[in-house]
């Protein structure tokens, strides 16, 4: 990557775009609704169960003009979900301002491990034990989505729930490869602790991206 492109990426005028696609939101509060997904490459949080490990190395994903991403996204939907990888690795200001200027509602799915840049209509915070969220993301999150891989994740979930704002919606979501084992545990936990809701990766059951 040459110096000029590196400078544009650092400003958020270009972003390492892994993929973009129009689909149905499969998880959390907005599940079942149509949205255009923009998946940004680059993540060093390193969840061993991550189902998009190919997103981790930003160098594998071509720097793409942010203006082009905005143009493509707003052709399809007025809801755009920015995900990764970890999108907050990069400056999201230009992307979100451009999308909102076109009338889009802009959502982010993030671990919250980095500074919150950009202007968001909805923040889905999915914290990871390896790199905890920043104070600002805890305060601004609209939903907290904790992935349950084993029993210790319930303890972690309660720790995270204590840090978010009082209006934040709380979700427990089974890690896909462990779903048969952990779904009964989640169901039991939510019935005993009804402040939580169950989130499922419904797009995988629907066999869509």
From TrEMBL:
Binding-site residues for substrate, renumbered to this chain: 24-26, 39, 83, 209
Named cofactor requirement(s): S-adenosyl-L-methionine; Mg(2+); [4Fe-4S] cluster
Record pathway: Purine metabolism; 7-cyano-7-deazaguanine biosynthesis
Pfam families per the UniProt record, alphabetical: Radical_SAM
Catalyzed chemical reaction(s): 6-carboxy-5,6,7,8-tetrahydropterin + H(+) = 7-carboxy-7-carbaguanine + NH4(+)
One Gene Ontology MF term: magnesium ion binding
One annotated GO biological process: tRNA queuosine(34) biosynthetic process
EC number: 4.3.99.3
Amino acids binding S-adenosyl-L-methionine: 49-51, 85, 126-128
Gene3D superfamilies: Aldolase class I
Domain Radical SAM core: start-end pairs: 30-209
Cofactor note: Binds 1 S-adenosyl-L-methionine per subunit.
Keyword Acetylation among UniProt keywords: no
Classification via PROSITE patterns: RADICAL_SAM
Domain of life: Bacteria
The protein's assembly and partners: Homodimer.
Family: Belongs to the radical SAM superfamily. 7-carboxy-7-deazaguanine synthase family.
Entry function: Catalyzes the complex heterocyclic radical-mediated conversion of 6-carboxy-5,6,7,8-tetrahydropterin (CPH4) to 7-carboxy-7-deazaguanine (CDG), a step common to the biosynthetic pathways of all 7-deazapurine-containing compounds.
Full protein name: 7-carboxy-7-deazaguanine synthase
Gene: queE
């Amino acid at each position: 990557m040459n110096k000029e492109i590196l400078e544009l990426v650092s400003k958020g005028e270009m972003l390492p775009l892994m993929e973009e696609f129009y689909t149905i939101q499969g998880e959390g509060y907005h599940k079942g609704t149509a949205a255009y997904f923009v998946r940004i490459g680059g993540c060093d949080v390193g969840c061993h169960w991550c189902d998009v490990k190919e997103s981790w190395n930003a160098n594998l994903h071509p720097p793409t003009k942010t203006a082009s991403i905005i143009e493509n996204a707003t052709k399809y939907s007025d809801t755009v979900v920015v995900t990764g990888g970890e999108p907050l690795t990069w400056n999201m200001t230009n992307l979100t301002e451009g999308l909102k200027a076109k009338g889009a509602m802009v959502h982010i799915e993030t671990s919250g491990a980095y500074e919150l840049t950009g202007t968001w209509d909805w923040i889905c915070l999915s914290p990871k034990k390896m790199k905890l969220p920043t104070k600002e993301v805890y305060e601004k999150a609209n939903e907290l989505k904790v992935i349950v891989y084993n029993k210790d994740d319930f303890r972690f979930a309660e720790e995270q729930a204590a840090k978010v704002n009082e209006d934040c919606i709380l979700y427990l979501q089974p890690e896909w490869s462990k779903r048969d084992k952990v779904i009964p545990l989640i169901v039991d936990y939510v019935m005993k602790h009804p402040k939580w809701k169950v989130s499922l990766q419904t797009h995988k059951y629907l066999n869509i991206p």
